[in-house]
Task: inverse folding
């Protein structure tokens, strides 16, 4: 009888680059394999892993990918810096802000500025164009090219006429962006002030022991509204982690399932006010405080959804691009190879102004909203902790015996007879 042998077939889908290294000695079983045994299981698994790794090979580089590498890198840095949390200024920061060494400090931190890093693609592009034009004109002037190639030069009169128009365009563009920033700052000032005033009214108005739980919940909703509005207007915010310490789990689940989280919290506030055992006048006063929340939502959504007219932004961008594409031709007769650094300085300066206008056009990432929301929570908690102490102090003053009253002429008034 012939002795059965186990045939081991080499896998066909294993590439030579697979990290698997077979052992030199394989232990073969002499008995017949059972029906439930899989003979080549280890080799099959390893080969399947190699096929999955081969599917994750990097994509080949294309010309488009190479050209977009630097812009994508600059945009990535800019977007990451946009999501950084801002901080409110205190006395130490103001002293540093107006320090006489601020110019040196700002110059040394230029390479870490998101505005300057975002200018790398356009500045490099226009400086390279200037270098190409200078090289071409030099080759023509040195007769390295045939005579029918002209020197690229032009009169500077059109630039002298259009320079004021470009300056006014940049000024108006930046001023329009700053007005949006100022409007967003004022809207959030009203929201924060309204939340503090609303919480103060709730603490003063609700005194009954039957409404203690509703009072606590209402204050939580008031503190949660600025946080929800902040997450509503800033991309990439994690509203779940921001509200987990302010709302209970059931309330947080309802808020997270809502499409419009700030309005959902306003509905919580309205329903809580209806359940309170208060006089109608006090209820009306408290309900009137909700209007500042609605106004804040409207202003913030308007600023987020309606940018500066796109035709204005596109006109500014096209004007700057055409200006710097033709700038080396205009300056060639006067500057020759100095057109390269001149174009670099002009592009860095003018595009920097335009970039600042674009950045502050969306105002909310520029504001210290996280600290403002934390400030509301801190103020409410401090008001709750000092409420009983202040009331006890005032009651003690009320029960304190009054000193002897004096007459207007300075003599003590006579004691009243019993």
Result:
């Amino acid at each position: 009888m012939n002795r059965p042998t186990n045939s081991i077939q080499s896998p066909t889908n294993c590439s030579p680059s697979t990290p698997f290294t077979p052992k030199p000695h394989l232990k073969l079983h002499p008995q017949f394999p059972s029906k439930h045994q899989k003979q080549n299981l280890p080799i099959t698994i390893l080969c399947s892993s190699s096929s999955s790794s081969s599917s994750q090979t990097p994509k080949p580089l294309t010309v488009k990918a190479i050209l977009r590498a630097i812009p994508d890198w600059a945009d990535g840095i800019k977007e990451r810096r946009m999501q950084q949390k801002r901080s409110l200024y205190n006395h130490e920061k103001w002293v540093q802000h107006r320090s006489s060494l601020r110019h040196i400090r700002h110059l040394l931190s230029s390479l870490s500025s998101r505005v300057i890093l975002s200018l790398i693609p356009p500045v490099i592009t226009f400086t390279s164009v200037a270098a190409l034009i200078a090289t071409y004109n030099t080759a023509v002037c040195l007769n390295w090219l045939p005579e029918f190639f002209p020197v690229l030069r032009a009169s500077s009169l059109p630039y002298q006429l259009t320079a004021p128009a470009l300056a006014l365009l940049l000024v108006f563009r930046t001023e329009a962006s700053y007005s949006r920033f100022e409007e967003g700052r004022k809207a959030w000032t009203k929201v924060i002030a309204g939340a503090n005033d609303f919480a103060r009214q709730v603490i003063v108005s609700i005194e009954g022991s039957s409404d203690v739980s509703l009072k606590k919940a209402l204050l939580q909703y008031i503190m949660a509204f600025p946080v929800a509005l902040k997450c509503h207007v800033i991309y990439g915010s994690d509203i779940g982690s921001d509200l987990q310490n302010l709302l209970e789990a059931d309330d947080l689940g309802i808020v997270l399932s809502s499409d419009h989280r700030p309005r959902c919290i306003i509905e919580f506030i309205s329903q809580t006010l209806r359940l309170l055992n208060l006089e109608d006048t006090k209820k009306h006063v408290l309900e009137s405080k909700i209007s500042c929340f609605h106004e804040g939502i409207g202003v913030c959504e308007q600023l987020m959804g309606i940018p500066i007219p796109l035709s204005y932004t596109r006109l500014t961008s096209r004007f700057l691009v055409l200006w710097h594409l033709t700038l080396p031709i205009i300056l060639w007769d006067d500057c020759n190879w100095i057109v390269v650094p001149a174009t670099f300085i002009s592009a860095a300066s003018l595009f920097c102004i335009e970039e600042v206008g674009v950045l502050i056009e969306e105002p909310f990432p520029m504001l210290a909203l996280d600290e403002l929301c934390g400030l509301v929570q801190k103020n409410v908690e401090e008001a709750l902790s000092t409420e009983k102490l202040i009331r006890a102090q005032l009651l003690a003053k009320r029960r304190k015996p009054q000193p002897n009253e004096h007459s207007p002429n300075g003599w003590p008034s006579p004691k009243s007879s019993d």
